[in-house]
Amino acid sequence: MKYLALLPLFALAACNDVTSPASRNLTPTGNRNAMLVNEKTDFASPGAIIACNGEPVTLTGTVHVMDHETSSNKGVNIVFWIDYNLSGIGDVTGARYQGGESYRVQAEQNAATVFSVAITVRLVAQGDIPNTFVDTDMRVTMNANGDPTVERLGERVRCQ
User: Fold this and answer.
1) pTM of the model as a whole
2) Which residues neighbour 75 within 8 Å (Cβ) at sequence distance 6 or greater?
3) What whole-number distance in Å separates Cα of residue 116 and Cα of residue 7?
4) d(Cα 49, Cα 83) in Å, to the nearest integer?
5) What is the number of H-type helices and E-type strands within the chain?
6) For the chain, which residues make up each domain, given as ranges?
7) pLDDT tens digit at each of 160 positions of the chain
8) CA–CA dist 80, 119 (Å, integer)
9) Distance in angstroms (rounded) separating the CA atoms of residues 4 and 116
10) Rounded to whole angstroms, how far apart are CA atoms 40 and 84?
11) Dihedral (C-alpha) 57, 11, 66, 86: value to the nearest 10 degrees?
12) Distance (Å, rounded) from C-alpha 86 to C-alpha 45?
């Protein structure tokens, strides 16, 4: 559960570094109980990411946030996406990096609440420097009292 709690904090920290909002759109969908939030803003990373070759890379670019919520007699379903489109220069080699990070959070609430989180980080390097990929999957189930009953966390780092 502690990992899930950190996810919104990173998203909020990212929003604190926004240099200028590009757009904000709240659009009702065909379902009167659904709302889509669609926002794009400029982004500057609060710190460097360490690439597979050990070099720090500070990234800038855009962040795209989307939120879709529906409710029915079966409960509430929320799907929340955060996608980063980023680029940067390696502090050691001066190599150019293109990258991104995407979060997908889905929560279903009825008698129990189930959170599913998929995080993918990709950092593609120029030339012979290896590319960095990090995949994280989390799933947390909480009972009606709010107690976690199942927690799974899987992470995989790939250098290619």
Assistant:
1) 0.63
2) 108, 109, 110
3) 12
4) 16
5) 1, 9
6) 2-159
7) 333 333 332 333 333 333 333 333 434 444 545 667 789 999 888 888 889 999 999 899 999 988 888 887 777 888 888 899 999 999 999 999 998 888 888 888 777 888 888 888 899 999 899 999 988 898 888 888 888 887 888 888 899 9
8) 12
9) 9
10) 10
11) -10
12) 9
> Which residues in the chain belong to E strands, given as ranges?
21-28, 35-44, 49-50, 56-72, 75-90, 96-109, 113-125, 132-142, 148-159
State the amino acid at position 122 in one-letter form. R
Q: What is the pLDDT of residue 54?
A: 92
Contacts of 105 (CB under 8 A, 6+ apart): 7, 78, 79, 80, 81, 115, 116, 117
- Asked whether the CA dihedral 5, 80, 68, 13 is positive or negative, the reply is positive
Which two structure tokens, joined as six digits, stand for 44?
Answer: 């500057």
Give the largest Cα separation in the chain, rounded.
57
